């Protein structure tokens, strides 16, 4: 087989595939370590999922255990990035609230809060009155809530662009509009990344292509069990009157997140975040519709209705835009992070679904460490790309 | 100041609208923007980030430059709203 | 609230009104959905009409009045203040009706007649109150009998600034200056597009003669360098330019004015057909991005038609012809038109359409700005008015590799505001065309509903009742 284009890379280069928040973070952390890094992005930076999501960094929404621990480390890393990146990323510990619309939901939240507290996360259980005195804009249907002051938010676009900018300052090369079409392998090991424009010899290849990670995986003979799951979001005009103190999600949102069979039914999941511009982001649907990024009247209505019952003041605002992002869903709700034994030199960092922003900084740190030192300071077994034993990572040549 | 309203123009019946509490001349069939313009009121709002004073640009519902508060509802297009008796306009350009 | 129709016509300007009346007369159940507060579109004139200060009576040579009259006679249903903001995969059209109603409707056939909007080439101070479009000035003058200012500067190119200046002078307004950024040579060059349009040429010359009689001499090869004022426009600085649009030093002049009307040409409103998945094509000589239609004016999507400015800029008469033509083809498919009579009408309209298309090319090439005007924009000039994004910030983002419209939008928020890129999109395309290359300049922002802002409350509650009852307008 002959490959197009000249061989332009340096033999020692580490190639990151994907210019979303995960790829940009990995490139940043690699470059910071002095690793020669090339980031390849088929479209533009943040042109996929990272440019079509909200910026909530919720700890309360993570599964107690390693997932939560990772998120806790992740938010500290984000906090540090906010200080060092060459661009304002609008990070703040605004706090987050999970809101219950029924006594059953409130009880479930209380049980979850107990487990979270055991993991060292400070979560308060609030009755309806307490919740409303903390967040004045909550509607009368709210029965109670949990609140966590450590939850935060960030501007996902600014974060992705800031990471890329930082990576460049540390010497990384970033190629946009360049699509990876093949991986050249010799005795299993990947030797070069072939794009529609050139071929790059690679020491290590990192697959951070999000919902497109399975395509890249197939080039290495792998089946990565990541499925696109559409999330539609609504954006209101900036509001002079309505000021949210913290980020809000409904208890139903958590239920849908971890029970995909609920999605599509008339659930009550909703999230509300106020960006620094004053606009409110209302989300989000979770639908399996392949790569369709359209928004639909049906879901727009559902989200609007739920958001307005959570915060009735929204009814006075104009909806100015909608958009949809494709979240890289995995069956157990955990990302795929780590090396693949059958393909030396290949690392996967994808499948974060809705947690990509929250886990971006820590994923970048860990993967950079893995690529540079072949070990990590955090156990990654639960996130191993090969963990789906029966149908998971298959090698086929 | 010359009168901006043409004298020999057939207008609808007069209606009373108020702009920041002050009565402004208007006629049925006119848009709020037209009535404001006739009264010399072209500075309608402030831009979101720079805070610059702004007014109507396209006059046909596209640019959202003529946003004003009408009967308590903020961000209404003055060029796409017809005047009616008792209508209240608020211009926040302080 | 939902409604079922045989045909929905979106847009109540010349094309939409003509189509609506034709379909209604043939017994087709149709509604014309119009965003504006009154049917007929923003302005009433045809490029050849004189100004007559009568809001309700006929105006000599006027295009829209007779169309509204015809629609009234035929009983055409026109729903005013219906703003279509989305079109679902299954063909459901959704719209804001009046203040608070969500209208959902389904039609067997859809005809897009969404017209065009004005485009702008920014300069320092173009965001000052008092700087408006020629269309805005025409609406004030013709619809409302109101002068747009005490001392008015009209600037731009093409026939509309001439027409506006002539109308303003005719109504007793004070036109302080009429600036045209094209040269006489360029105008002479554009005439080659005017095949068989001698009448129109003569009308244009007549317009010019009228202006000269009123003491208004167009200053050719002259453009606005800056608009200045504390809280609103107080003065306009003009500068002469060479054939490529580069300023001639020392030619600056300052003119006191409280109104500056800009006529920089038009951009077709293709957003809705684009959202519907209809193929669009780029043709700089016909207005940029257009909806591709076949001989029958059907778009690339079965059952969806387009007429008027969105198939290529051409002015009111072309829109009327296309509205009728699309209506005939649509009626034929519904079985409401057939036979030799239909064939004859179609053939006649198709011939007239070709003539008007050549006139459209003439107008568009007249209005085309010299490319150098883009280079005159200063770094501190606001490009995106909704989000206050300056050229400096755009250049900075382009320097960092954001060379597509979508990546620029993400990097700078340009186009993220209320107008959803309708005003800054064409500007950004022009800027990118100069900074990056023609390919980047021909890009498109991606679209999602709602195409215009709507109250969130609209989506929350279901209101009972017939949507045609409350807002019905039998013009």
Give a quick set of tags describing it.
heterotrimer, B: mainly beta, 1 helix, 7 strands, about 5% helix, C: 15 helices
Biggest sheet layout of chain B: 5 strands, mixed
Shape of chain C: globular
Largest interface: B-C, 44 and 52 residues
Secondary structure class of chain C reads alpha/beta
Helix content of chain C: 25-40%
Helix-residue proportion of chain B? under 10%
> What is the terminal-to-terminal distance of chain B?
24 Å
**Low-confidence stretches of chain C at least 5 residues in length (pLDDT < 50)?**
46-60, 463-475
What is the element string of chain B, with H for helices and E for strands? Answer: EEHEEEEE
Count of individual beta strands of chain B: 7
Question: How would you portray this structure in words?
Answer:
The complex is a heterotrimer of chains A (397), B (94) and C (475). Chain A is an alpha/beta fold and 397 residues long. Helix content of chain A is 29%, strand content 24%. Chain A has helices spanning 21-32, 66-84, 103-118, 128-134, 156-169, 213-219, 251-258, 297-310, 356-373, and strands at residues 14-17, 37-41, 56-57, 96-100, 124-127, 144-148, 152-153, 173-176, 180-186, 189-195, 199-201, 204-207, 227-236, 247-250, 271-274, 280-283, 318-329, 336-339, 346-350. In chain A, strands 5-6-4-14-15-16-13-17 form an eight-stranded mixed sheet. A six-stranded mixed sheet of chain A has the order 8-2-1-12-19-18, sandwiched between helices. Chain A has a three-stranded antiparallel sheet with strand order 9-10-11, with no helix packed on it. In chain A, strand 1, helix 1 and strand 2 form a beta-alpha-beta unit. In chain B, 7% of the residues lie in helices and 30% in strands. Chain B has one helix and seven strands; from the N terminus they run ββαβββββ. The mean pLDDT of chain B is 94. In chain C, the strands form six sheets. In chain C, strands 1, 2, 3, 4, 5, 6, 18 and 22 form an eight-stranded mixed sheet that branches. Chain C has a four-stranded parallel sheet with strand order 8-14-9-10. In chain C, strands 11-12-13 form a three-stranded antiparallel sheet, with no helix packed on it. Chain C is globular. Residues 46-60 and 463-475 of chain C have low confidence and may be disordered. The interface between B and C is large, with 44 and 52 residues.
């Amino acid at each position: 087989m002959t490959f197009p284009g000249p061989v332009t890379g340096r033999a020692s280069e580490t190639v990151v595939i994907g210019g979303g928040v995960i790829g940009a973070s990995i490139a940043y952390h690699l470059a910071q370590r002095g690793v020669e890094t090339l980031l390849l992005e088929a479209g533009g930076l943040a042109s996929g999922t990272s440019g079509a999501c909200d910026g909530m960094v919720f700890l309360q929404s993570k599964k107690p255990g390693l997932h939560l621990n990772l998120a806790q480390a992740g938010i500290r890393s984000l906090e540090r990035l906010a200080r060092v990146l060459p661009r304002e990323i609008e990070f703040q510990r605004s706090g987050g609230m999970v809101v219950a619309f029924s006594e059953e939901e409130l009880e479930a939240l209380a049980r979850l809060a107990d487990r979270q507290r055991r993991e060292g996360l400070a979560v308060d259980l609030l009755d309806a009155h307490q919740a409303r005195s903390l967040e004045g804009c909550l509607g009368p249907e709210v029965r109670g809530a949990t609140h966590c002051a450590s939850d935060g938010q960030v501007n996902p676009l600014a974060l992705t662009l800031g990471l890329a900018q930082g990576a460049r300052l540390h010497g990384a090369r970033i190629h946009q509009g360049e699509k990876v079409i093949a991986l050249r392998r010799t005795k299993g090991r990947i030797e070069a990344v072939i794009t529609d424009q050139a071929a790059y010899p690679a020491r290590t290849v990192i697959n951070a292509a999000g919902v497109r990670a399975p395509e890249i995986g197939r080039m290495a003979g792998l089946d990565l069990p990541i499925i696109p799951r559409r999330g539609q979001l609504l954006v209101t005009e900036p509001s002079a009157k309505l000021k949210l103190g913290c980020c809000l999600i409904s208890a139903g949102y958590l239920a849908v997140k971890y029970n995909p069979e609920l999605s599509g039914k008339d659930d009550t999941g909703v999230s509300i975040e106020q960006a620094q511009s004053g606009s409110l982001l209302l989300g989000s649907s979770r639908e399996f519709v392949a790569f369709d990024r359209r928004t639909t009247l049906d879901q727009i209505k559902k989200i609007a209705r739920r958001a307005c019952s959570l915060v009735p003041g929204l009814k006075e605002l104009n909806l100015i835009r909608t958009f949809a992002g494709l979240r890289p869903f995995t069956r157990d709700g955990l990302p795929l992070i780590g090396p693949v034994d059958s393909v030396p030199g290949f690392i996967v960092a994808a499948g974060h679904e809705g947690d990509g922003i929250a886990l971006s900084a820590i994923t970048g740190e860990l993967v950079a460490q893995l690529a540079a030192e072949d070990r990590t300071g955090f156990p990654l077994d639960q996130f191993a790309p090969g963990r789906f034993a029966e149908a998971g990572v298959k090698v086929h040549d | 100041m010359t009168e901006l309203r043409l004298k020999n123009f057939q207008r609808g019946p007069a209606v009373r609208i108020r702009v920041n509490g002050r009565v402004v001349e208007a006629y049925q069939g006119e848009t709020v923007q037209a009535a404001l313009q006739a009264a010399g009121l072209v500075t309608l709002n402030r831009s979101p980030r720079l805070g610059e004073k702004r007014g109507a640009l396209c006059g046909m519902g596209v640019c959202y430059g003529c946003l004003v508060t009408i009967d308590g509802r903020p961000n209404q297009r003055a060029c796409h709203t017809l005047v009616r008796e008792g209508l209240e306009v608020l211009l926040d350009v302080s | 609230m939902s409604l079922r129709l045989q045909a929905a016509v979106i847009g109540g300007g010349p094309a939409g009104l003509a189509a609506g009346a034709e379909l209604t007369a043939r017994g087709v159940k149709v509604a014309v959905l119009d965003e504006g507060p009154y049917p007929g579109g923003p302005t009433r004139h045809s490029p050849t009409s004189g100004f007559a200060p009568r809001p309700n009576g006929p105006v000599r040579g006027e295009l829209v009045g007779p169309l509204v009259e015809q629609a009234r006679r035929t009983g055409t249903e026109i729903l005013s203040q219906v703003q279509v903001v989305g079109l679902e995969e299954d063909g459901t059209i959704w719209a804001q009706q009046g203040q608070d109603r969500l209208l959902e409707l389904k039609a067997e056939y859809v005809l897009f007649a969404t017209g065009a909007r004005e485009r702008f080439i920014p300069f320092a101070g173009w965001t000052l109150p008092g700087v408006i479009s020629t269309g805005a000035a025409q609406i004030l003058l013709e619809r409302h009998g109101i002068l747009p200012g005490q001392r008015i500067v009209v600037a731009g190119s093409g026939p509309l600034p001439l027409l506006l200046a002539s109308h303003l002078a005719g109504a007793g307004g004070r036109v302080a200056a009429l600036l045209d950024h094209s040269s006489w040579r360029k105008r002479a060059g554009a005439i080659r597009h005017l095949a068989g349009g001698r009448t129109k040429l003569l009308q244009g010359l007549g317009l010019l003669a009228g202006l000269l009689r009123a003491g208004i001499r167009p200053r050719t090869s002259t453009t606005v360098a800056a608009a200045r004022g504390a809280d609103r426009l107080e003065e306009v600085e003009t500068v002469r330019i060479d054939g490529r649009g580069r300023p001639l030093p020392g030619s600056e002049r300052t003119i006191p004015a409280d109104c500056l009307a800009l006529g920089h040409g038009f951009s077709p409103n293709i957003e809705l057909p684009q959202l519907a998945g209809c193929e669009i094509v780029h043709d700089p000589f016909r207005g940029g991005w257009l909806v591709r239609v076949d001989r029958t004016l059907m778009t690339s999507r079965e059952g969806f038609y387009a007429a008027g400015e969105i198939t290529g800029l051409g002015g009111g008469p072309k829109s009327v012809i296309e509205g009728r033509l699309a209506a005939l083809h649509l009626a034929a498919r519904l079985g409401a038109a057939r036979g030799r009579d239909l064939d004859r009408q179609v053939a006649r309209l198709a011939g007239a359409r070709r003539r008007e298309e050549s006139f459209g090319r003439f107008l568009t090439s007249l209005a085309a700005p010299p490319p150098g005007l883009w280079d005159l924009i200063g770094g501190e000039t606001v490009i995106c008015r909704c989000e206050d994004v300056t050229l400096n910030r755009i250049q900075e983002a382009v320097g960092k590799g954001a060379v597509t419209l979508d990546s620029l939008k993400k990097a700078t928020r340009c186009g993220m505001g209320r107008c959803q890129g309708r005003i800054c999109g064409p500007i950004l395309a022009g800027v990118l065309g100069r900074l990056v290359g023609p390919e980047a300049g021909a890009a498109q922002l991606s679209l999602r509903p709602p195409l215009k802002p709507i109250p969130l409350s609209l989506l929350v509650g279901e209101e009972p009742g017939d949507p045609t009852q409350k807002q019905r307008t039998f013009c």
